[in-house]
Structures are given as C-alpha cells and as structure tokens.
Design goal:
This protein has eight helices and eleven strands. With about 240 residues, it is an alpha+beta fold.
Length: about 240
Amino acid sequence: INGTILTYGQTSSGKTFTMEGPSMWDPQHQGVIPRAVERLFQLIAEADVHTAFTVKVAYYEIYCEKIRDLLNPANVNLKTREDKDEGVVVSGVTEVYVANKDDIMEVLETGKRFRASAPTLMNAESSRSHSILSIHVTQRNEISQRVRRGKLVLVDLAGSEKVSKTGAAGLRLEEAKNINRSLTSLGMVITALTEGPHHHVPYRDSKLTRVLQESLGGNSKTCLIICCAPEPRHAPETISTL
C-alpha cells in the first residue's frame, strides 16, 4: 500500500511548519515528516527476523511546472515515465539508500538548501514550489523470497494565494500562476476520484498530479492536512481552502 500526506493552504498558514516543525531534530518540536520517518524505522526494527528491508529516498520539487532534483540541483527539468512495477516515476531523480531516521533528516537538510523560496508580502520565506519527499520501502522474506514494495510520499505544497495580497509581479507573478493552476488540477483530480471508478481522472493536467498519480489513486491511502491562517483578513482564503 502507498501512503501520502499533503499539506494544503494559503501562503503563511503553516504548511512547512506542520511537515517539518520548528526543529526537525528536536523530538518535542518535530513535524509530520520526522515523526513519520521515526515510526517507519521503528516498525522495521520490530519486523520478523526473516524479513530484510531496503529504504531509499528521493527529494525533489515542482517549480513553474518543472521537476527539479533537490539532491542534485543540476537536474532541473526531469521527465516522468510509466514503470510496470512502480507506476509513474521521475526519470533520473537522485535516490539515496538510508539506514535510519538521521540519514533521511540529512537528506532533507541538504535538499532544503536548494528549494525555491522568495519573500512576498505574506511571508518572508514563502515556498514557491511543491516539495515532495518520496520514501520507497522494499521488504523481502528470506524464506519465501516474496518481495513487497510500498511508498510513503510526504508533500509540502506551495501556498495558494490571491496575487493582490502577495504583491506578486514579474517572476513572482508567473510562479503564483503556476502554483494556483497546479493546485486547481489537484482539486479536480481529487473530485474526480470521489465520483467513482468509471470517472475520468485528469492526472496529466499538471506535473504535480502526474507525479502523485500512484499516491492519490489505486491502492493508496491519502491524508490531506488543511492549514488555515487565523487572522480575520484571511477569511476568504480560509473558506476557499476548506
């Protein structure tokens, strides 16, 4: 089974704070990603002694409809392809084998340095891209040789926003258009999935929904965390988000 957790909401509503926490290294103040990773390795440690595990991670962002490898920033326009075992995969993305939680935290710290962010009127460190941490777990039973695969995808979406409030112009405006367009596509995919198995699901409408195809449909369990800003002036965006 594949699992997906996404944070959704306007700029400065707490999406990155929710996923990472104020400190990824402090057990008291960690967000969803460090806690999920800790739980994953705890379950591996408790597993049957005849089961061998491998865990590998990829960390990339979707910026202005281009997939960029955060572990190798030279890879700036990666393509997607279909794989018969894994479904939709990102071709050429860097994958790192990890042995424990700290390994994944170091991958995150490396990737965060290259993530596209810029100041707007709403947020001094606004994320201008969707970041995706993909954790692939393979388990092999050493007696029966049966192999099972699962993927945990942790997504920090870029903030949806009203251009008039963020003061976006030039490149920032182009970023905002791409962000809002891909979030609209995500909403349409989720709506289509709720309408039953025979309904067309427009995965190909954006890079975001394409790379999340295996994470939203099929045998996946998906959790959407809604982030809302408390200030009354943000009421229209809060209503829209909800």
